[in-house]
Amino acid sequence: MNLRLANVGKRYAEDVWGVRGVDLELEQGIHGLLGPNGAGKSTLMRIITTVSEPTTGSAYWNGTDTVETPSAVRDVLGYLPQQFGVYPDLTATEFLEYIAALRGLDRETADARIDELLSLTNLQQARDRKLRTFSGGMHQRVGIAQALVNDPDLLVVDEPTVGLDPEERVRFRNVLSSTASDRVVLLSTHIVPDIEATAKTVALLEEGELVTHADPESLVEATDGKVYEYVAPRDDLEAVRREYQVSGTVQRADGVSVRVIADERPVPEATPVTPTLEDAYLDRIERRGAA
Ligand SMILES: Nc1ncnc2c1ncn2[C@@H]1O[C@H](COP(=O)(O)OP(=O)(O)OP(=O)(O)O)[C@@H](O)[C@H]1O
After folding, report:
1. What InterPro entries does this protein's entry cite (predicted)?
2. Per the CB 3.0–4.6 Å rule, which of 64, 174, 181, 227 could disulfide with 72?
3. CB–CB of 141/80 below 8 Å?
């Protein structure tokens, strides 16, 4: 299984490119598409799912050009878009039955598959409740269930954890990682912990361009020796933010403990700490911003 993007660009207006010159190759496993708001993640997802056509370049699924032959990807695709609307008066089971029918599954196959998916997404207890009564997290889990109805080879999930509380976010992450074997999963997010534990590779997008595509370990390694923690007076926090990329703050009795990304030790008492993927992400974004 292989998804390849070659020189993919999307122009919205004369000088407005949603993405530009993106080359990317993804194999089986979870891949994170990371970038700040407006970076072009949704644009790229819409091209991959054939909802929208690129202005330049093309996408290939197992070597077949998906702009010329959209069915090559549509037939194997599961998609959870950012704005995922459901039918509030259907129960979870009814909704999944409807999706299964649209996907052309016969009744028997559909029933078995729906049972399996409700259990995978931890919604067995709620299967006969109307979707209007679902919490944000349950809504997203039904979303992932509907995307998996046809057992897709390519699963595309766009910002799935926005608005979820931390516990639901973790639950969603676990569901997703348990579905990742035997398919290509592309998960777009601007929340680094969403992919930290699960992604095989991370593609970092900023202002429509692919900044890097690497495994999380290599990204973190590149930031090694550049992350420091120290306690700053509370009144200095704004100044620290102006000077450094701050990846965390903790209020303390004697000031604010800050975690910063810096090429050199910012103050003599700063302690070097082990970087996380979040630090590495901010470092790449920062370096680009400063370049
Ligand atoms: N239909 C459109 N017409 C014009 N510009 C657009 C259109 N859709 C997106 N853009 C612009 O393209 C850029 C990329 O947008 P996109 O929605 O792909 O980013 P994103 O990374 O998904 O951000 P978000 O997380 O905020 O959705 C932005 O500058 C956006 O304003």
Report:
1. AAA+_ATPase (IPR003593), ABC_transporter-like_ATP-bd (IPR003439), P-loop_NTPase (IPR027417)
2. 64
3. no
In the beta sheet, which residues pair with residue 22? 8
Average pLDDT over residues 110-125: 93
Q: What is the pTM of this model?
A: 0.88
Ligand 1: residues with CB < 6 A are 12-13, 16, 18, 35, 37-43, 159, 190
**What are the φ/ψ torsions at residue 60 (nearest 5 degrees)?**
-130, 130
In this prediction the ipTM stands at 0.94
Give the start-to-end residue ranges of the domains of the chain.
3-220, 225-273
Which of 62, 45, 6, 53 lies closest to 186 in space, CA to CA?
A: 45
**Ligand 1 mean position to 160 CA, how many Å?**
17
17 Cα nearest atom in ligand 1:
12
State in words which class domain 3-220 has: alpha beta
Residue 39 Cα to chain centre, angstroms: 12
Structure tokens at 109: 């196959």
Report d(CA 202, CA 33) in Å as an integer.
6
DSSP string, 116-173: HHHHHTT-GGGTTSBGGG--HHHHHHHHHHHHHTT--SEEEEESTTTT--HHHHHHHH
Please give the distance, rounded to the nearest whole angstrom, from the Cα atom of residue 100 to the centre of ligand 1: 31
Report which of 83, 163, 85, 94 is spatially closest to residue 130, judged by C-alpha positions.
94
Nearest CA to ligand 1 atom 13: 18
Task: List the residue whose alpha carbon is closest to atom 14 of ligand 1.
Answer: 40
How many C-beta atoms surround the C-beta of residue 196 within 10 A? 17
pLDDT (tens digit per residue) in 157-167: 988 888 788 88
- Give the separation between CA 43 and CA 9, rounded to whole angstroms: 9
Predicted confidence (pLDDT) per residue in 65-103, tens digit: 999 999 999 999 999 988 777 789 999 999 999 999 999
